[in-house]
Amino acid sequence: MADEMPQPTPQQLVDQLTALLDVEELDTDLYRGERQPGGVGRVFGGQVIAQALQAAQRSVEDKGAHSLHAYFMRPGDEDHPILYRVERDFDGRSFATRRVIAMQKGAPILNMAASFQRPAEGLHHQDAMPEVPDPESLRSERDLREAMRDQVPEKLRRFFLRARPIEIRPVSPRNWFQPVPTEPVQYSWFRVVAPLPDDPALHRAMLAYATDMTLLGTCMLPHGVSWMTGQVQTASLDHAVWLHEPFRFDDWLLYATDSPWSGHSRGFNRGRIYSRDGRLVASVAQEGLVRVRR
Fold it and tell me: Who contacts 221 (Cβ-Cβ below 8 Å, separation ≥6)?
């Protein structure tokens, strides 16, 4: 059966993700993002954000990305590659700004603005890291998914149980198929499953990719609904990431998410990302479509 096929090794999974985010330069400020191997249907939003960030980073030499703001306009199609056009809006001594338009079949699917800064010192404070169990004491999401194999409809089983390059260890695991209302707060540790090279731009792109995981689901927690049961239609509308401190995405990071509001078929979600030593390394905000199927 398809879900019984041998799984790739952790290093192969990470190498595949690295290659996926390594956009190809076609011309000056024009790049192509590859398709997800075996991808079907709609492109994962985190992939488009990460590839757009990689395209923008290729045009800046002496500054690191510190924020990005993206709007999704159309769903990406896994049957086609994505083209990224970079506009060099501003280059200053301390900051630079880039705009990226992601396109498929002649139509834009995402607009993103990204800002870059030369390293600098300044005043510092941060929110304290939440007190949660260490990742070593928690079960991986893959193990949790495998434990509910018999609950998964056969048509979803291959997707639901496939090996992934990013390991997630939730503090309070949820049941995707029998959801119950809970507080709109989630804590999860995550990291890639094999070592990455010492390339800060790649670590930033990997993190941007992963910030689209678990985030939108936070606003559905108080309502006891899940996309795995066919109760809701969801899609990211916009996505913002602020990169505060250096980090490695092959080390454990804590993703703390909450949702202060939902309404009008939209849900608003926030995220804070901490390193194991308690540094707040990134913040995230996202609004998404959450349309109840009746």
Answer: 174, 179, 181, 182, 183, 184, 185, 186, 259
What global pTM score does this model have? 0.93
According to the model, what pLDDT value does residue 4 have?
54
Q: Residue 11: in which H helix or E strand, if any?
A: helix 10-21
> Which CA distances in Å does 173 have to 140, 187, 225, 229, 259?
9, 9, 15, 17, 17
Distance CA 90, CA 98 (A): 7
Q: Which two tokens stand for residue 290?
A: 């959450």
Tens of pLDDT, residues 167-207: 999 999 988 788 899 999 999 999 999 999 999 999 999 99
Q: Which residues are marked as active site?
A: 212, 236, 286
The DSSP annotation for 52-79 comes to HHHHHHTT-SS-EEEEEEEEE-S--BTT
